[in-house]
Amino acid sequence: MRYTPSYVLDDPDEVRRLIRENPWATIVSGTANGLVASHYPIVLEEEADGISIVSHVGRPDEELHELGQHEVLVIVQGPHGYVSPGWYGTGDFVPTWNHVTAHLYGTPEILSDEENFRVLGDLVDHFESRMPEPMSLDIDEQSARRIAKGTVGIRIRMTRFDARRKLSQNKRPEVVERVIERLENDPNYAQPALAEEMRRVHGE
Question: pTM (2 decimals)?
Answer without folding.
Answer: 0.94
